[in-house]
Protein backbone atom coordinates (compact mmCIF):
# COMPACT_ATOMS: atom_id res chain seq x y z
CA UNK A 1 0.00 0.00 0.00
CA UNK A 2 1.47 3.32 -1.09
CA UNK A 3 -1.23 5.61 0.30
CA UNK A 4 -1.92 8.65 -1.84
CA UNK A 5 1.64 8.89 -3.17
CA UNK A 6 1.84 8.79 -6.96
CA UNK A 7 2.80 5.35 -8.18
CA UNK A 8 2.50 5.48 -11.95
CA UNK A 9 4.48 4.77 -15.06
CA UNK A 10 6.62 7.63 -16.29
CA UNK A 11 5.25 7.16 -19.82
CA UNK A 12 1.86 8.44 -18.63
CA UNK A 13 3.43 11.34 -16.75
CA UNK A 14 1.35 14.43 -17.67
CA UNK A 15 4.12 16.79 -16.53
CA UNK A 16 7.61 15.41 -17.23
CA UNK A 17 9.29 14.47 -13.98
CA UNK A 18 6.20 14.93 -11.80
CA UNK A 19 5.70 11.26 -10.96
CA UNK A 20 9.38 10.61 -10.41
CA UNK A 21 9.62 13.53 -7.99
CA UNK A 22 6.51 12.49 -6.07
CA UNK A 23 6.41 8.72 -6.60
CA UNK A 24 6.85 6.45 -3.65
CA UNK A 25 10.43 5.20 -3.80
CA UNK A 26 9.13 1.68 -3.30
CA UNK A 27 7.16 1.81 -6.56
CA UNK A 28 9.14 -0.85 -8.35
CA UNK A 29 8.95 -2.07 -11.85
CA UNK A 30 10.22 -5.59 -12.44
CA UNK A 31 13.74 -5.16 -13.71
CA UNK A 32 16.10 -8.08 -14.30
CA UNK A 33 19.81 -8.18 -13.53
CA UNK A 34 20.56 -8.18 -17.26
CA UNK A 35 18.32 -5.15 -17.79
CA UNK A 36 20.08 -3.30 -14.96
CA UNK A 37 23.51 -4.11 -16.43
CA UNK A 38 22.31 -2.99 -19.89
CA UNK A 39 21.02 0.23 -18.34
CA UNK A 40 24.31 0.87 -16.54
CA UNK A 41 26.26 0.21 -19.78
CA UNK A 42 23.93 2.57 -21.67
CA UNK A 43 24.58 5.41 -19.22
CA UNK A 44 28.32 4.79 -18.94
CA UNK A 45 28.80 4.86 -22.75
CA UNK A 46 32.11 3.02 -22.47
CA UNK A 47 33.48 4.99 -19.50
CA UNK A 48 35.13 3.04 -16.72
CA UNK A 49 33.20 2.99 -13.46
CA UNK A 50 32.75 0.92 -10.32
CA UNK A 51 29.06 0.77 -11.31
CA UNK A 52 29.82 -1.40 -14.36
CA UNK A 53 28.40 -4.89 -13.92
CA UNK A 54 26.66 -4.03 -10.62
CA UNK A 55 23.14 -4.85 -11.82
CA UNK A 56 22.91 -7.80 -9.44
CA UNK A 57 23.84 -5.61 -6.44
CA UNK A 58 21.13 -3.06 -7.32
CA UNK A 59 18.54 -5.83 -7.68
CA UNK A 60 19.62 -7.37 -4.36
CA UNK A 61 19.51 -3.93 -2.68
CA UNK A 62 16.00 -3.48 -4.07
CA UNK A 63 14.89 -6.92 -2.88
CA UNK A 64 16.25 -6.29 0.62
CA UNK A 65 14.82 -2.77 1.01
CA UNK A 66 11.86 -2.62 -1.35
CA UNK A 67 13.33 0.53 -2.94
CA UNK A 68 13.14 0.84 -6.72
CA UNK A 69 16.41 -0.41 -8.29
CA UNK A 70 16.39 2.30 -10.97
CA UNK A 71 15.97 4.95 -8.25
CA UNK A 72 18.98 3.45 -6.43
CA UNK A 73 21.07 3.48 -9.62
CA UNK A 74 19.96 7.05 -10.37
CA UNK A 75 20.86 8.21 -6.87
CA UNK A 76 24.27 6.52 -7.04
CA UNK A 77 24.88 8.04 -10.48
CA UNK A 78 23.93 11.55 -9.40
CA UNK A 79 25.82 11.43 -6.11
CA UNK A 80 29.01 9.83 -7.41
CA UNK A 81 29.17 11.26 -10.92
CA UNK A 82 28.74 7.68 -12.17
CA UNK A 83 31.52 6.72 -9.72
CA UNK A 84 34.37 8.37 -11.47
CA UNK A 85 35.37 9.76 -8.07
CA UNK A 86 38.12 7.76 -6.38
CA UNK A 87 36.67 8.73 -2.98
CA UNK A 88 33.37 6.97 -3.72
CA UNK A 89 35.21 3.89 -4.97
CA UNK A 90 37.65 3.58 -2.06
CA UNK A 91 34.89 3.97 0.52
CA UNK A 92 32.46 1.75 -1.45
CA UNK A 93 29.94 4.56 -0.94
CA UNK A 94 28.09 5.17 -4.21
CA UNK A 95 25.35 7.25 -2.55
CA UNK A 96 27.73 9.78 -0.89
CA UNK A 97 26.38 8.94 2.55
CA UNK A 98 27.83 11.42 5.06
CA UNK A 99 30.08 12.96 2.38
CA UNK A 100 29.26 16.55 3.28
CA UNK A 101 30.53 19.31 1.01
CA UNK A 102 32.83 20.74 3.68
CA UNK A 103 34.49 17.35 4.36
CA UNK A 104 33.64 14.64 1.83
CA UNK A 105 36.34 12.31 3.15
CA UNK A 106 34.30 11.78 6.33
CA UNK A 107 31.81 9.76 4.27
CA UNK A 108 30.93 6.32 5.51
CA UNK A 109 32.83 3.23 4.39
CA UNK A 110 29.98 0.90 3.43
CA UNK A 111 31.64 -2.47 2.93
CA UNK A 112 34.58 -4.47 1.64
CA UNK A 113 33.34 -4.49 -1.97
CA UNK A 114 31.55 -1.90 -4.08
CA UNK A 115 28.52 -4.21 -4.30
CA UNK A 116 28.39 -4.20 -0.46
CA UNK A 117 28.21 -0.40 -0.59
CA UNK A 118 25.28 -0.50 -3.01
CA UNK A 119 23.35 -2.85 -0.72
CA UNK A 120 24.38 -1.37 2.65
CA UNK A 121 23.82 2.17 1.40
CA UNK A 122 20.30 1.27 0.24
CA UNK A 123 19.57 -0.16 3.70
CA UNK A 124 20.87 3.05 5.29
CA UNK A 125 18.69 5.20 2.99
CA UNK A 126 15.63 3.09 3.77
CA UNK A 127 16.23 3.31 7.52
CA UNK A 128 17.17 7.01 7.72
CA UNK A 129 14.83 8.43 5.08
CA UNK A 130 12.13 6.08 3.81
CA UNK A 131 11.19 4.57 7.18
CA UNK A 132 11.04 8.08 8.68
CA UNK A 133 8.44 9.17 6.12
CA UNK A 134 10.76 10.83 3.60
CA UNK A 135 9.64 8.41 0.91
CA UNK A 136 9.81 10.49 -2.29
CA UNK A 137 12.60 12.45 -3.99
CA UNK A 138 10.96 15.68 -2.82
CA UNK A 139 10.63 14.25 0.66
CA UNK A 140 14.34 13.38 0.80
CA UNK A 141 15.17 17.04 0.16
CA UNK A 142 12.33 19.01 1.71
CA UNK A 143 11.63 16.74 4.68
CA UNK A 144 13.12 17.16 8.14
CA UNK A 145 16.52 15.92 6.87
CA UNK A 146 18.04 17.13 3.57
CA UNK A 147 19.84 14.43 1.60
CA UNK A 148 21.60 17.05 -0.53
CA UNK A 149 22.23 20.77 -0.38
CA UNK A 150 21.52 21.27 -4.09
CA UNK A 151 17.76 20.63 -3.64
CA UNK A 152 16.05 21.23 -7.01
CA UNK A 153 19.11 20.34 -9.09
CA UNK A 154 19.45 17.07 -7.13
CA UNK A 155 15.78 16.20 -7.63
CA UNK A 156 15.87 17.10 -11.32
CA UNK A 157 19.09 15.15 -12.00
CA UNK A 158 17.76 11.97 -10.39
CA UNK A 159 14.29 12.40 -11.86
CA UNK A 160 15.75 12.79 -15.36
CA UNK A 161 17.84 9.61 -15.02
CA UNK A 162 14.82 7.64 -13.75
CA UNK A 163 12.53 8.97 -16.50
CA UNK A 164 15.05 8.31 -19.30
CA UNK A 165 15.86 4.88 -17.86
CA UNK A 166 12.25 3.71 -17.84
Query: What is the helical fraction, as a range of percent?
Result: 40-55%
Strand content: under 5%
Shape annotation:
globular
**What can be said about the biggest beta sheet?**
none
- Secondary-structure element string: HHHHHHHH
Number of helices: 8
Give a quick rundown of the structure.
It contains eight helices and no strands.
Describe the structure.
This protein is an all-alpha fold. It contains eight helices and no strands. The radius of gyration is 15 Å and the shape is globular. Mean pLDDT is 81; it is low at 1-10.
SSE blueprint and pairings:
Blueprint: H1 18-22, H2 33-44, H3 55-65, H4 69-80, H5 86-90, H6 114-128, H7 137-142, H8 151-165
Descriptive labels:
single chain, 166 residues, mainly alpha
Amino acid sequence: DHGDVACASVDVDPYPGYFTKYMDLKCRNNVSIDQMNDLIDHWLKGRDSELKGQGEAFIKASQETGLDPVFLLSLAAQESGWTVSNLHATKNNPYSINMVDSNPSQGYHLGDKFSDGIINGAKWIKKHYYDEGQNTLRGMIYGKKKYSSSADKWINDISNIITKSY
